[in-house]
Amino acid sequence: MPKGRPPVEIDERLVVSLARIGCTWNDRMKVKIPSLESVLHPSQREVYRSLARFSILEIGRRWGKTTFGIQLGIENAILARKCGWFAPSYKYLANPVRSFERALKPLILRHDRVEKRMEFRTGGELDFWSLEDSDAGRGRDYDLLVVDEAGFVPNLLEWWRNAARATLADRRGRALFLGTPKGTGDFHRLYLEAEGDTSGQWRAFRIGSSQNPHLPADEIEAARAALPPEVFAQEFEGVPAEDGGNPFGLDAIRSCLAPMSSAPPECWGVDLAKSQDFTVAAALDAEGRVCRLERWQSPWNVTRERLARMIGDKPAQIDSTGVGDPIVEDLRKVCRRVEGFKFTSQSKQQLMEGLQIAISTAEIRFPDGWLRSELEAFGFRYSGRTVSYEATVGHDDGVCALALAVLARRARRPLLVKVI
Ligand SMILES: Nc1ncnc2c1ncn2[C@@H]1O[C@H](COP(=O)(O)OP(=O)(O)O)[C@@H](O)[C@H]1O
Ligand SMILES: [Mg+2]
Description:
By secondary structure, the protein is α/β, with parallel strands linked by helices. The protein folds into two domains: 37-214, P-loop containing nucleotide triphosphate hydrolases (Rossmann fold), CATH 3.40.50; 250-411, CATH 3.30.420.240. It contains 15 helices and 17 strands. It has helices at 12-20, 36-39, 42-50, 65-78, 94-104, 156-164, 186-195, 217-226, 229-237, 250-255, 300-311, 324-334, 345-360, 370-376, 397-410, and strands at 24-25, 31-32, 54-59, 82-87, 108-112, 117-120, 125-130, 144-147, 174-179, 202-207, 267-271, 279-284, 290-296, 316-319, 338-341, 378-383, 386-391. An eight-stranded mixed beta sheet has the order 5-6-7-4-8-9-3-10, sandwiched between helices. Strands 13-12-11-14-15 form a five-stranded mixed beta sheet. A two-stranded antiparallel ribbon has the order 1-2. α4 (65-78) crosses α5, α11 packs parallel to α12 (324-334) and α13 crosses α15. The longest helix is centred in the last third of the chain and has 16 residues, at 345-360. The chain is elongated. The N and C termini lie far apart (88 Å). Adenosine-5'-diphosphate binds next to α4.
C-alpha cells in the first residue's frame, strides 16, 4: 500500500464546489472547515470537542447521532481521509448514503453503488458496510470508523475485536460508536468498558434526547406519556432497560418457549413473501402451541398449492397486501376458512398488540430458534407522536405469521356442539 496521501491540487472547480458546501481553501492549500462547529448544535459541539480516539455515544433517540456521525464523515472526506460507515443492516444505510451524496456531491469522483463506496476529489474515501456480515471492513485501513445504531448490532464486541480494531492500526484511526442502548447487550458493555478506561483512549458519553434543540419538547413529553418509564429512560435518556425495552418483554417471550407440538393444526397464520424475503406459515394447535412453522421461497403457484394442502379447512389469516390479494382469493376457492389481512401501519400495530397480549398471558407457546430471535429483535419506534412495534434488525415475517395465527385463533368460529 503506498504511504502518504495523494497530493491535493488546487482545482478551480474544487474551490467552487468546496465553497458550495461551506468550505474554503486556506493559503497552505489545506481545507479549512469553518462550518463544522457551526453546523453542530451545542450538545453535539460539546461532544465533538471532547472526543477521544475511541468514543461511545450511548444517547437517546433523535439527539442527532446520525447527523453528528455524518458531519464527522464529511470532515474526513474533505481532509482526504478514509472512513468506514457501519450499520446493523442495509436499511440503516440508505439515509446516510443519501445525506453524504447530497452534502458532498461536487466532490464525488466516483460512487460505486455495488461496492457501496465513494471516492472524493480530495483523495478521501468512504465505504458503507452492513454488519449483517460479521467480517465487514476486515482487511481495510481507516482513519475513522463510525458505527451507527450500535445498540442493534448483536455481536458488536466480537466484530470490534476480531475485524474492526485492526482496520485502525496503520493509520492510528479513530472510532465512533453511536447508538441508543437496547438492553444491557454488547453496546452497553462497550460503554461500561469505555467509562472505566484509564488509558485515555476511550471516552463514554450519555446524553438525553432533550439536548437536541431542534426536537420539539412536546414530542418527548408525548413519548414519556405513552411509554413504560424504563422504556422511556432507555429510548430518550440512553439508560438501558433490563429487558431491552422489547414490546413483548424478554421474560414473557422466554416463558412462552416450548418444544414444537406434534398435535394437528387448529388455525394458521401466513405472511406471504414480498420481493426478497420468505413466505412463513405458522400453525397453532388446540392448546395454542405452535405445531407447524415453515419458511420457504418459491414461485407463486407452488406457494399457493403448498398452502392449500397445509391449511385445508382450518381457519387461516393470510397477508393479502398487494400481490397477496389474488393468492388469497384463489385459496378461498379451496380453503373456505381463509381470510385476507391487509397490512397498513395501523392494522399491523393492532395485530402486534394482539400478539403482545397472547405472549404476556402465555396463551401461546413456540419453539426456541429463529422465531424467538425475531421476537427479541423487536423494539419500539416513534414517528411524530405515534409509538409502534417494529423489527430493529433482520426479518419480521415469522412474527407476522405468528401474530396472524393468533388472530385466526381468536376469530375461530365456535365449534358446533352436538347435543345428544
Ligand atoms: N446539528 C443539527 N442541526 C439541525 N438539525 C439537527 C442537528 N442534529 C440533528 N438534527 C435534527 O434532529 C433530528 C434527529 O436527528 P438524527 O441525526 O436522525 O438523530 P438520531 O440519529 O440521534 O436519532 C433530525 O430531524 C435532524 O435533522
Ligand atoms: Mg440515527
